[in-house]
From TrEMBL:
<dbReference type="Pfam" id="PF00535">
    <property type="entry name" value="Glycos_transf_2"/>
</dbReference>
<keyword id="KW-0808">Transferase</keyword>
<dbReference type="InterPro" id="IPR001173">
    <property type="entry name" value="Glyco_trans_2-like"/>
</dbReference>
<feature type="domain" description="Glycosyltransferase 2-like">
    <location>
        <begin position="2"/>
        <end position="104"/>
    </location>
</feature>
<keyword id="KW-0328">Glycosyltransferase</keyword>
<protein>
    <submittedName>
        <fullName>Glycosyltransferase</fullName>
        <ecNumber>2.4.-.-</ecNumber>
    </submittedName>
</protein>
<dbReference type="GO" id="GO:0016757">
    <property type="term" value="F:glycosyltransferase activity"/>
</dbReference>
<dbReference type="InterPro" id="IPR029044">
    <property type="entry name" value="Nucleotide-diphossugar_trans"/>
</dbReference>
């Protein structure tokens, strides 16, 4: 098992690292790939030498760090942990058990509900958009894509809430394939575009227990004010809708609901991104 930490911000990094070290599943390696412009991450890792495999990323960028870590991972399974998130001590054990228990269903990843926390480690909300309750829940890949295409939300969660097989990060030619990068730009959010790609290959399984903590704060990459590529995350949902239509994943009554929800999604962001007005006008003609 490889716990892979793409590290950039030192603010909460040590807490994230400690949660990786504290996992109940013992057969793990912890790999840190450092993008930090200072030596702050390196100095923290020095305190855990012998436990952590540390190296600097020679080509800094969040998506490049994710790709690099997949290539460094030696384990059959990979558990990403972003530098400001936290894992429950049983996270890997339970997600691995869920993935293996459903192997015969063709599951490609395991996830769980996650808590949202603030800068003071206070829980602010529970994310359980796919309604995993009381027992393991297997969702066929086409159904996950359909739900995403209709609702236009990442209902599964972020990288820190998921466990997958390392081999599924690569295509048959050995090239990283979780998400696509064209001219340094990802067509959508790193996490959701990865889950959609995996869902085209098989099912996903949810464990009912919240097993990770996703931190929301002012310096987060999910903050549009600090992420100049955020617009691509917004319009990606239209790409998912087109994918669902092309593959016949939608039910007869889905399409008008999907279009209305997409208009609402774009309308929410139009003040920050006025270029969405053109998309809103075009989609409105479909109703």
């Amino acid at each position: 098992m490889s716990i892979c930490i793409p590290a950039y911000k030192p603010d909460f990094f040590e807490l994230a690292l400690k949660s990786a070290i504290a996992q109940s599943f013992a057969d793990t390696e912890i790999i840190v790939s450092d993008d930090c412009p200072t030596d702050a991450i390196e100095k923290i890792c020095e305190r855990y030498s012998g436990v952590v495999h540390y190296s600097r990323n020679p080509n800094p960028a969040e998506y490049k760090n994710v790709i690099r870590l997949a290539g460094l991972a030696n384990g059959e399974y990979i558990k990403y942990l972003f530098d400001d998130d936290v894992l429950n001590p049983f996270c890997i054990q339970y997600l691995l058990q869920a993935l293996e228990a459903t192997r015969d269903r063709g599951t490609r990843l395991a996830f769980s509900p996650r808590y949202f926390i603030d800068e003071k480690n206070q829980v602010t909300n529970l994310g359980n958009g796919l309604m995993v309750e009381s027992s393991l829940k297997v969702i066929e890949g086409r159904d996950f894509i359909r739900i995403t295409a209709v609702k236009h939300h990442n209902l599964l969660g972020e990288f820190s809430s998921v466990l997958l097989r390392t081999a599924d990060c690569f295509d048959e030619a050995g090239r990283f394939s979780l998400f696509k990068v064209v001219d340094g730009i990802i067509s959508g959010p790193l996490d959701l575009s990865s889950w959609v790609g995996l869902s085209l290959k098989g099912a996903i399984v949810g464990h009912p227990m919240p097993l990770s903590y996703f931190r929301q704060h002012s310096n987060s990459q999910s903050n549009p004010a600090t992420n100049r590529y955020f617009i691509y995350s917004i319009i990606y949902y239209e790409e998912v809708l087109e994918l669902a239509i092309a593959n016949g994943f939608l039910q007869p009554l889905d399409l008008p609901i999907a279009y209305r929800n997409l208009i609402n999604h774009y309308s929410y962001w139009r003040e920050s991104f006025p270029e969405l007005d053109e998309r809103i006008a075009r989609i409105s003609t479909f109703l």
